[in-house]
Amino acid sequence: MYNAFFGFAQNPFNMSPDPAFLFRSSQHEEALANLIYGVQSRKGFVVLSGEVGTGKTTMLECLRDFLTAQQIAFASLFNSRLTVEQFFELLAYDLDLRCNRLSKTEVLLSLNNMLLERAAAGRTTVLIVDEAHNLEWDVMEEIRLLGNLENRRGKLLQIVLSGQQELDRKLEAPEFRQLKQRIALRCTLHGFDPAAAAAYINSRMARAGLRNQTVISPQLIEEIHFRSQGIPRLINAICDNLLLTAFALEIHTATVEMLDEVTADMRLDYPGPRAFHPEPAYSERVLRQSKVPHRAD
Ligand SMILES: Nc1ncnc2c1ncn2[C@@H]1O[C@H](COP(=O)(O)OP(=O)(O)OP(=O)(O)O)[C@@H](O)[C@H]1O
Ligand SMILES: [Mg+2]
To answer: Cα(247)–Cα(235) distance, rounded to whole angstroms?
Structure first.
């Protein structure tokens, strides 16, 4: 709506996990390097965790782009509220297994053959599970068993699990002890620090067509960082609504009064003078409560 007014070619603060807008902060760079290294070196299990809205799905999108470019076969599950049967059906569908996809036995046989063939040809196969904190215990157990498949040279299936911090807590539970032991690499995403938040906002605006932007001043960016706790999804929602407000008032520079209005409408419970420790689902809760129109993921 406001793109032409500010001179953007496209929306700078879209809520979708689009790798075209990837900002390579050091933690995101490290997370992606870990995912790629874990998969390429056939480490078995790799876990990516982090607070709500910190960029996990965006990292998985980047990993998928990498795998596609390298012609590495992968199955990618984004809805983790699955039964065991649905899990195997989706796995077979994604890996294009030619078998009765409704039969777990057939899927397992077909998958085993495929993995052995691919491994013999020196090729890697990957399973990516996003929102893994939602996985039921029995599905998690099936995934652990798939991670056990190996030949002499290493694991046949590389498994990437990504999820909110409950995933870390789940993996600490006694019933997941065996799975936890098999995790070769783990990384966690956090909110940005002030410098990274500023670079993030400026990079998204530059990517959308506005280099050296003067719409959101460095001081206002600091305040946005403070109120969002550096969480990318919240930064996007605040900036998007801020630009919308400035546009509605036909003003080219956002002000702290506009920011107050936006964060009040979002019911943003940002820290006061006391130390503020948002709970893990903080950004999700804020966005759900918000009455301000924002683009859904
Ligand atoms: N490094 C980054 N570069 C560009 N945009 C990012 C980055 N990290 C996060 N974002 C943006 O932040 C928003 C939230 O990211 P994403 O959906 O990947 O988070 P998430 O950790 O998967 O959240 P959830 O826990 O809700 O699944 C998206 O709009 C995404 O584009
Ligand atoms: Mg996600």
So the answer is: 18
Closest ligand to 56 CA?
A: 1
Any residues with Cβ below 6 Å from ligand 1, and which?
15, 17-18, 21-23, 25, 28, 50, 52-58, 164, 232-233, 236, 297
The model carries a pTM of: 0.90
Tokens of 280: 């893990």
Ligand approaching nearest to the C-alpha of 283: 1
Protein residue with its CA nearest to atom 10 in ligand 1 = 55
How many Å apart are CA 103 and CA 101, to the nearest integer? 5
Q: What is the pLDDT of residues 152-163, one digit of tens each?
A: 888 999 999 999
